[in-house]
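Lab manual, section 2.4: Encoding a predicted structure.

Procedure: take the sequence of the chain (389 residues), apply the prediction step described in section 2.3, and record the output as structure tokens. A sample record is shown.
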Amino acid sequence: MRPEHELLLSCVRAAFRADGPAPPPAPPAGLDWGRFVSLCEWHNVVPLVCRALPDVRDEAVPPAVVNRMRAMHRNHTARSLFLASELSRVLRAFEPSGIPACPFKGPALSVMLYGDPALRQSKDLDILIPGEMLHRAARVLDAQGYRSQNELDGARLSAHRRTEYEAGFIRRDGKLQVELQWAVVPGYFGFDHKKLAIWDRIERRTWNGFAFPVLPPEETLLMLCVHGAKHLWCKLGWLVDVAGLLESPAPPDLPRALELASRCGATRLLCVGLLLAGRLAGARLPKEILDRIEADIMVSALARQSLEMIARTPVNPDADPARYLFYLKSKDCRRDQLYFAGRLLATLAAGEWNPSALPDPLSPLYYLFRPLHMAGRHGGPILRTLARR
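Recorded output:
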């Protein structure tokens, strides 16, 4: 990794654990401070790095960098408090309509991990709801001053719900985006969070008069690891979430988390997240858990691939078709791999579904063209990736 990444990792390890390693070492000569600051913003770790920078020798960090980081931290703190207030308002608006809702990440997770919404960098709000409540929730958001990001309503919204896993809504003043999610990842991913029965397990965390619904630590850990894997762990902030949960006053019961992961076919996904949180953020894992993780050589291979992705950041892997190979290898068994491949070929993406293009009786034709579209769009890049390996 480049020196900027190494210093960033040192700051992260020193910041979020009170009994963590020694303060970050002095930055090497020639370090690109502009790139370092950009990486802090990209990886969503500005608050944590600001807590660690005072431990670096004052003469080693240019004053302009310190001032810029502090200004960014103040902006993120104000943003986090605004998000906490708006999240509370939206959740209260859902209650009279009988819409179960649980924030995913954002200020609620920050309160769960640190007892303060300002200690985790957040930009927008993600809220989990049951899929069948999407139309009702969209009407509530409309009454609260939000509009659909893609102008979805009626039949288009129903089609979107069948093929996607989230719908974006923008506040009409442009200050905030809310993502309503009825799943954590796309359907082809093969992770069915309904097996977790999350709506029966919601807890409440309070902060300064706010009360946020959250999931138990084990369910939260699993869903964070699945979400991070979807993006190939390209942002350290997601790993810090996992490490912060492991080091929190009420850490997850890892054997129970592994049992939940096995039930959902996501054991490798959980193990990759745990391994990376230990290696990069300094999270402590019990020896028996670490031994179980390291016994699966594919987990280590997937972790190395994620490390390569982090070392190349800032880069967005969501546009890289090679991510499908990562998803395939992350499946727990051959049957799950075949199931994933079948779902990938059969699940229409938003851009491939246009309910106005064909009459309803002919809509199955979309699925016949899906494999051809996938082969034409991603076949070449995937074959080149395999050839390099």
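Check your result against the sample. The chain is about 55% helix and 10% strand.
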